[in-house]
Specification:
The chain has 2 helices and 46 strands. The radius of gyration is 32 Å and the shape is elongated. Among the domains are: 100 residues, no CATH class; 58 residues. The protein starts with a helix and ends with a strand.
Length: 506
């Protein structure tokens, strides 16, 4: 539908300009932040002395710290910050805006008032989302001799459109009419004055609907079907299945596995009776869902439900299950064990991954949750635990750990909610690395402590700082910005008073 191409181009242009607008604002704010270190020391009596050449501070306006290619600049943390590592950089203006991008230009992510706005780029693939109404996605598929692309957008629930290399453009204005591709599990959808006329195709199947869902005709390839709802309907695929109903929802009949030696058959006269017979199982239900019984030949167990799904008992070679939902449930198989009490308030799952490793999941909603992978020979490999709303802990596979207090989110969304909002209420953080080094922050990073194999450093701006150098057996302590302090160099110790009075002592 080439006459809709200008609208598609307009939406793409609006997306690009919106991205440039907020990116330009981020660059401007970052540039303003970068000028703060140029302020003369006399501009503020809060300029703190610093032994490390990689740390600068004009508290509370500005702080910059870095080591081994990692730099963190912030002004009035956690509201305005710039973080840089050898792989990526991030600008944050919380609680409104966060931009993170790879230094090689391969990836970029911008979020504004998350989850309202998201821009995400990976190589040439682009996703834009404005909740709850607008989405835009562009996927590029590179090949040796060129590339293909696919673009789609949606202004829910009215506008749908897009284009691709092989199929061209499409557009739909709901409920007036148009075409939609790759939507709701369908390859193509076409409608006019929905629900008066609606058709779709999926692989070989093509279905036409008139006054949906009342009248439909299906065909194409091995497919065939007809529906005059609720009186009668059928759908079939040659040598695979045939389904039919009459006086929906009261009568249903289905034959399946028609290409196998023993085909299957299902019949339901709702709500009086239901049955299934196949090579996989035998199933009977009376006054469904009040009473049902299943013999599962494929997994070798029997199951009784009265009524389903509230009371269920299963026994077999590889399974034992007792469920009185939502009060209590327990299921054991060869490689798992699952239990719940007062679902969804409490559950506990154990999955065997191999002969030495298992995964455990525990939830006491909303206060406690834990997921861990444990090894009999290595102990805890990785772990994620939360005591809401107070505490969160993570252990990574390389041995690094992270602890946070407070943790107001009862769910995981590290790239979205946690990245943009969690620093606002985090009063304590501790990070440890596999080599034993650690960083500790408290009271929105007013208190900072760093511990490495080479020494340690502790800082409270204006009030206190202390550093230790293990290699030289030296140390330095400053109180109230230098009014009182001490230093140590081997066996030599000195006391400082009023910045410049230096008194040796033993």
């Amino acid at each position: 539908m080439t006459h809709f191409a200008p609208l598609l181009a307009l939406l793409e242009t609006a997306t690009k300009w919106w991205r440039r607008l907020i990116s330009t604002e981020a660059i401007f704010l970052a540039a303003a932040l970068s000028f703060i270190p140029l302020l003369p020391s006399s501009a503020s009596s809060a300029l703190a002395s610093e032994e490390s050449s990689k740390t600068q501070e004009i508290w509370p306006v500005y702080s910059s710290a870095g080591e081994e290619g990692t730099v963190l600049d912030y002004s009035i943390w956690p509201f305005l910050a710039v973080e840089r590592t050898p792989e990526w950089k991030q600008f944050s203006l919380r609680p409104f805006y966060v931009k993170r991008e790879a230094l090689d230009g391969s990836e970029e992510r911008i979020q504004f008032l998350w989850p309202v706005y998201l821009y995400k780029r990976s190589e040439e693939d682009v996703t834009v989302r404005v909740l709850p109404i607008y989405t835009y996605r562009k996927d590029v598929y590179p090949y040796e001799d060129g590339h293909e692309y696919k673009v789609n957008y949606m202004l829910f629930p009215f506008l749908f459109g897009g284009s691709s290399t092989d199929e061209g453009g499409y557009f739909a204005f709901f409920p007036i009419g148009g075409n939609i591709k790759d939507f709701l599990g369908r390859d193509k959808i076409r409608f006019y004055l929905f629900p008066l006329y609606y058709e779709y195709s999926k692989n070989e199947l093509r279905q036409r609907n008139y006054l949906w869902p009342v009248l439909s005709f299906s065909g194409g390839g091995d497919y065939n079907g007809f529906r005059l709802w609720p009186l009668y309907g059928y759908s079939e695929k040659q040598n695979e299945y045939r389904k039919e109903f009459a006086l929906w929802p009261f009568y249903h009949h289905q034959k399946f596995d028609l290409d196998k030696e023993q085909s299957g058959e299902r019949t339901m006269v709702f709500p009086l009776y239901a049955r299934e017979d196949s090579e996989r199982r035998r199933y009977r239900a009376f006054l469904w869902p009040l009473f049902s019984r299943e013999e599962n030949y494929a997994r070798n167990f029997e199951e009784y439900s009265a009524p389903w799904p509230f009371v269920t008992i299963s026994r077999g070679e590889d399974i034992s299950q007792t469920r009185i939902w939502p009060l209590y449930g327990h299921t054991e198989t060869n490689d798992s064990e699952k239990s719940f009490v007062l679902w969804p308030l409490y559950y506990r799952n154990i999955f065997t991954l191999d002969s030495d490793t298992e995964r455990r999941e525990t939830l006491l909603f909303p206060f406690w949750s834990s997921q861990s992978v444990l090894s009999g020979s290595k102990g805890t490999i990785r772990q994620k635990s939360r005591f809401w709303p107070f505490w969160k802990y993570r252990k990574f596979e390389d041995g690094a750990t992270y602890t946070r207090i407070l943790s107001l989110l009862w769910f995981d969304d590290e790239e979205g909610f946690e990245r943009q909002y969690s620093p606002l209420w985090t009063i304590y953080e501790r990070e440890t690395e596999p080599d034993g080094s650690s960083h500790t922050y408290a009271l929105w990073r007013l208190y900072r402590h760093k511990q490495t194999a080479d020494g340690s450093e502790t800082r409270i701006p204006l009030l206190f700082s202390h550093s230790e150098d293990a290699a030289t057996a030296s140390g330095d302590t400053t109180i109230l910005g230098g009014i009182l302090g001490s230093s140590r160099d081997g066996d030599e110790r000195r006391l400082r008073i009023l910045y410049f009075i230096d008194i040796p002592f033993q």
